[in-house]
Amino acid sequence: MTKGPVIVITGTPGTGKTTHAELLASQSPVPLKHINVSDYVKERGLYEEYDEEWQTHTVDEDRLLDELEVIVSEGGVILDWHTCEAFPERWPDLVVVLRCDHSKLWSRLEKRGYPLKKIQENNEAEIMQVVMEEARSSYPAEIVVDLESETSDHLEANVERIIGWITQWLENSKEVN
Ligand code: DAT
């Protein structure tokens, strides 16, 4: 049986990764397991310490990657995380980088109750295209796409586009097998 693809959905916090991943998992023609990596880290206790200043956990990447390797090897996975360079180059079939206008992103993060410092840091990262650069330097250009995620029309169009890509990917896998 053909395994499903491994899709990384990445982007600055608040750009819409989880919203996209959930919609994609519900509409995909092949079952996709959605792993919200930040939640997974918390659930599995895969962190080293809690950083009070940044109000964030320092992730134990070695343990995280060991655990994810098992899930990824089954195929049919969406990895939803605000960073991607830790994932080995051989893992993803597609890397989606979500982008959002920084003022819109600011209000999304404010609504989330993030402290000012964290909002500023993320806003700057979005302006500087940090995650995009990370994706481009970690994976072949042909598997990296950046998509705007500012409106619900974008969300629907993006998910439709990824589903189109999955359909094509499934066709190609059939030809190979
Ligand atoms: P992330 O997982 O990247 O942190 P999210 O999916 O939790 O982001 O979305 C953050 C908020 O922004 C949430 O209230 C939903 C909203 N949102 C995300 N993408 C959107 C889009 N394309 N159009 C409108 N709202 C969006």
UniProtKB/TrEMBL annotation:
Q: Name one GO molecular function term.
A: ATP binding
Q: Which UniProt keywords apply?
A: ATP-binding, Cytoplasm, Kinase, Nucleotide-binding, Nucleus, Ribosome biogenesis, rRNA processing, Transferase
Q: Where in the cell is it found?
A: Cytoplasm; Nucleus
State the top-level EC class. transferase
SUPFAM superfamilies in the cross-refs: P-loop containing nucleoside triphosphate hydrolases (SSF52540)
- Region annotated LID sits at 111-121
User: Which reaction does this chain catalyze?
Assistant: ATP + H2O = ADP + phosphate + H(+); AMP + ATP = 2 ADP
Does Cell wall biogenesis/degradation count among this protein's keywords?
no
EC number annotated for this UniProt entry: 2.7.4.3
Locate the region NMPbind. 36-59
Statement: the UniProt record of this protein carries the keyword Endoplasmic reticulum: no
Per the record, its GO cellular-component terms are: cytoplasm; nucleus
Q: Where does ATP bind?
A: 14, 16-19, 112
A single GO BP: rRNA processing
Task: Give the record's subunit note.
Answer: Interacts with small ribosomal subunit protein uS11. Not a structural component of 43S pre-ribosomes, but transiently interacts with them by binding to uS11.
UniProt function note: Broad-specificity nucleoside monophosphate (NMP) kinase that catalyzes the reversible transfer of the terminal phosphate group between nucleoside triphosphates and monophosphates. Has also ATPase activity. Involved in the late cytoplasmic maturation steps of the 40S ribosomal particles, specifically 18S rRNA maturation. While NMP activity is not required for ribosome maturation, ATPase activity is. Associates transiently with small ribosomal subunit protein uS11. ATP hydrolysis breaks the interaction with uS11.
Tell me the protein's name: Adenylate kinase isoenzyme 6 homolog
Species assigned in the record:
Crepidotus variabilis
* Source organism phylogeny: Eukaryota, Fungi, Dikarya, Basidiomycota, Agaricomycotina
